[in-house]
Amino acid sequence: MSLFLVNRYLGEDENGSVSKESQSQALLAKLKQKAKEKQRQSLTEQTQHPSKERTERQNAKTKRKADKDNSQEPKHHKKRRSEVVPSIALDSDSQDEPVHEEKKNKRAAKETRKKKKDQSGSSVKGLSDNTPVTGRDGQDTGGEEEKTGTETVALKQTTAKTSGPTGYTVLGGFENKPVQKVNRVLPQWLAQPDVIHRDVKSNLVPIADIPELSALLVKKLQNNGIQHLFPVQAEVIPAILESAQQGLLIGRGGYKPRDICVSAPTGSGKTLAFVIPVIQVLMERVVCEVRALAVLPTKELAQQVCKVFASHAEGTALRVVMLAGQRSFAAEQASLSEHRGGMRRSLADIVVATPGRLVDHINKNSGFSLEHLRFLIIDEADRMIDSMHQSWLSQVVKAVYRSGSGAEAMSIFRRTEPACVTAASLSPPQMPLQKLLFSATLTQNPEKLQQLGLHQPRLFSSVHSPSNTIGSSSNGNTTPAAPAQKQGCFNFPQGLTEYYVPCTLSKKPLLILHFILRLKLSPILCFTNSRETAHRLYLLVQLFGGLQAAEFSSRLSPAERKKTLKEFEQGKIQLLISTDAASRGIDVDGVKCVVNYDAPQYIRTYIHRIGRTARAGKTGLAFTFLLGVQEKNFLQMVVEAGSPGIQKQIVKPENLKGMEARYEQTLQELANVIKDERAK
Ligand SMILES: Nc1ncnc2c1ncn2[C@@H]1O[C@H](COP(=O)(O)OP(=O)(O)OP(=O)(O)O)[C@@H](O)[C@H]1O
């Protein structure tokens, strides 16, 4: 029974002999006496501190009212409240308490504050001194009172003060902490690249200074008129050759070459930086197999790179094949392999492909094998990463390691996907797959680069931006970048001068005509944002007359595009109006001027467009037509990207006057032509 004994407080004179009635009477008398004493005490205090007393009385009154309200609640609510209120009250999103309770609390607290406010000007502060305000109240009031300046501040202070002593963590508090800027932290290989000089002209390296180059290739380069290597070539060629010192295989000891990433300005000679070493490594091969694969985003680029490979492989046994859909699938298939005596024989050493056509051959052409692939070259790498959703890379990698478990695994070398390095895994000779990435605007986003599955990558870059500032690294793996860094600083060719031309929409075509007919800036490569604009501008210029123009977009067939590019290169076309189909990689010698008829939306697009001029250390001009609304954002974008400076070029209205009458007439003719086209 003693287990259930409940001890009660029965007053100091607890005595078993006294009756219960007398006990309670004694207790009551004692309480009354205490109450009297307290009353007397408060009276004396009141005479000394009248305002404080009043405040306390008000508080007590409010508290009593709140208690009364609470007493009407069901018991379990009361209990929960006493447990939960201080903590959840600070969380405005919390749904733990019933809504009516919240309202009552708010009302009670509000009343308290209102009365205090009436009492004195500093009432809000007074509240904080005497009555703890729950966070929820503070929050509501904070929201309302934000309209009244000084009071808001006082209330915020109140909340901050009260949150401390309660010992509860304030969630969603009012303290306005300054948000800390997050500094980008790059992996070491991205933050500390091998630096390439941006100025091509003053950093030429004589071919003789690169002893790694084979005599055959030196001769070939000289025959092609190349006596010096550009900075990117002087850095990257020896690095690739060094990684293939062991021939095509990894020797015992398991040295697997590092993947190589190159970020250098447009027109700085990146193509030869991979063509030369790949040819040199492969030209000693005995058996013909596909050992190098270059992937490019467009047919035109594939064609251009294929041409460079073919011209430098001349005189060797190497065969270069293009898979870009320029020819039929069957024709491409026939150029890749042949079957003799039931055996497949590869006819290609180097394949240059676009991703779509490449995947077609991997899946549908049994004669196409990548099991001997040694180099995977990804040109315009940032663009190729964006097309990763086509999963071309995973298909290539799958095709490369296809033989891992098959009968061919018994051949002299093994091809296994990179895994943990062990003594057993290293004993048979391995053929590595080395990735070589090139772009003028290589992303620094490690998340994007991760999609490429790079192996201990090494970066060569000509971006001398603060983003590459070497900071102290705590663990040696990452380097905090300088706080002032911009998200991305890009490569701008040294010989390029950038201008922007403020204009109105209706005057843009007239400006282009002025540039060609009056300023004689041709050949001009002009970019629009859509093929419709390109087509209409082309029609208008044709109708205006006096110059040779052509359009270049997906409206044309690949054959027509090829012909157009050739004619532009030959100087037969003064104005080539193109969509972004020609903005990347296209190398047309002698383009003096690029005009962005439509301002590009993205900085990368801008860099590639203007990079069609000022190539190979030459000079060039880039003009961007800007409408009033575009000016601010565009200029900001260009400056942030690290442009050396873009100048304003104003074309005075009187300079256009002589052409205006003819222009108006041409516009009317154009309307008829477009109507006819639509009817057709
Ligand atoms: N060492 C060299 N000497 C003279 N000319 C060169 C040399 N290397 C490359 N070139 C020429 O420079 C031009 C630009 O080269 P390339 O097309 O490789 O530039 P890129 O860096 O790939 O440009 P983009 O980023 O626009 O694709 C080409 O016409 C090429 O023939």
TrEMBL record:
Please provide, alphabetically and separated by semicolons, the GO molecular function terms listed in this UniProt record. ATP binding; hydrolase activity; RNA binding; RNA helicase activity
ATP-binding recorded as keyword: yes
Gene3D superfamilies referenced in this protein's UniProt entry, alphabetically = P-loop containing nucleotide triphosphate hydrolases
Tell me the domain comment.
The Q motif is unique to and characteristic of the DEAD box family of RNA helicases and controls ATP binding and hydrolysis.
What job does the chain carry out?
A: RNA helicase.
Hey, which family's this protein in? Belongs to the DEAD box helicase family. DDX51/DBP6 subfamily.
**UniProt protein name:** ATP-dependent RNA helicase
Q: Which organism is it from?
A: Perca fluviatilis
